[in-house]
Amino acid sequence: PYAPTTPVSADLFERMKVGPTYAWDWAMQPEGIPQNATGQIFELYAKDQIGKEQFVQMMAAAVADYVAQ
Question: HEC string of 31-55?
Fold first, then answer.
């Protein structure tokens, strides 16, 4: 069977095996937020340059900053 090796994919794969998951509603996000606020954070996490705690903190700050604009 398929076993992802990158941090984000591996984590999502495990979560999907355990219980209900939710859609990634990219189309529902404010325009530009993936490119201007969250994409870089996903990339850092996927490259294992930040851990889970830092990912959550950075995402919360990026979204808060983006919404405040």
Answer: CCHHHHHHHHHHHHHHCCCCCHHHH
